[in-house]
Amino acid sequence: MRKNMLFVIDSLHCAGAEKSLVTLLSLIDYSKYSVDLMLFGHGGVLEDLVPKEVNILKPLKYTDFTKLNLMNSMKYSIKQYDYKMLYARLKYSLTIRKEEYSNPQKARIFWQCVSRVIEDNPKEYDIAISYAQGVPTFYVAEKVKAKKKFAWVNVSYRLNETEKCFQQQYYNPYNKIVAVSHSTKEIFLETFPEYSKKIEVIYDINNPEFITKMADIGESYSDSFEGIRILTIGRLAQQKGYDIALEACKKLKEAQIKFKWYALGKGPLKNEIEEYIKDNGLTGEFILLGVKSNPYPYIKNADIYVQTSRFEGFGLAIAEARMLNIPVVTTKFDAVYSQMVDEKNGLVVEMNADAVFNGILRLIKNPDLKGNIVKYLQGEKKGNVEEIEKFYKLIG
């Protein structure tokens, strides 16, 4: 008899945890497991890549409610004689506008405002997995019945005392907590040392066969540019260090390098980034491509992959670039050495624009260095699909 399993994640927009989940879902043995997937946000570009065996659950009532504009949400509430969802939505919206909040703070405020109007999952599962920290973790802890519960932590972040006290009550019901790198585990335990006995590491799974196949299909760069193509993938958010990337881009232009720097992603800093590009005359050099469901042709056809992150749980896009033998320049974030060998499979540099600029310049000006890195990449072990065995052992 197949075991029932539930995965919960915010959405399937194109980001590291989301791609990791889609890869994991593609490797599960569906003769042994029946899998449901719950999303708080629908319409992500990666939904099309979810295996057909996976049952994507219908949106929560509150998720549907938030799609209504304010006028229609008021009409709905009046018609239903129920104002709870409207009150929760307004309370969250008004609170979140007051100041800049970190992601953990936003998740807490959302759950404090909205959890009462989010229905319980009616099904009982053998296994329930929150595949991201924050709201998915709160939901599985409070709204799901399951024999075993597992919480994924796929970003390295440190919590203040308020956030620690709030989140602790939701991690307590979990049988195990899974960090996606040893660095992520160590940082998590700085906040929650009491969970040292129930946390373990399972790396984000990446499948080289899938990535190689996807790199040969779909769209890539549409221009006829013949210079150096630099690529960065990541949400347009403070974590990803686009301010560092933009300043390094400006320095490359000042050095009269023939290049274009492309960025795949979307996020809250889009307008700010576009303004910097315009104000600094980088319209022809730094190109925002938005989100692509298949980023792999862009990686394959890049000359250099650059990651300017301030922190990462693992750095899946770096792993994907390595699998396609593209030299990497990356900042020295916490988990970087879980996959990078400095001067061998790429360059690990300090977290500032000068260091990123100099790293890129070294690869452009020194073809022997770049050639040696490519050669090393070609000989590297590709992917880590064996992590699926750790997953099976975890869930029993």
Description:
By secondary structure, the protein is α/β, with parallel strands linked by helices. It folds into 2 domains: 3-207 and 386-395, Rossmann fold, CATH 3.40.50.2000; 213-379, Rossmann fold, CATH 3.40.50.2000. It is 41% helix and 17% strand. It has 16 helices and 13 strands. The protein has helices at 16-27, 61-66, 70-80, 84-96, 103-114, 135-143, 161-171, 182-191, 208-215, 242-254, 270-279, 296-300, 316-323, 353-365, 367-379, 387-395, and strands at 3-9, 33-39, 55-56, 124-130, 145-153, 176-179, 199-201, 228-233, 259-264, 286-290, 304-307, 328-331, 346-349. Strands 3-2-1-4-5-6-7 form a 7-stranded parallel β-sheet. Strands 10-9-8-11-12-13 form a 6-stranded parallel β-sheet, with helices on both faces. β5, α7 (161-171) and β6 (176-179) form a beta-alpha-beta unit. The protein is globular. The two termini are 14 Å apart.
CATH architecture of the largest domain: 3-Layer(aba) Sandwich
Which strand order spans the largest sheet, edge to edge or round the barrel?
3-2-1-4-5-6-7
Number of domains: 2
How many helices in DSSP terms? 16
Gyration radius, in Å: 22 Å
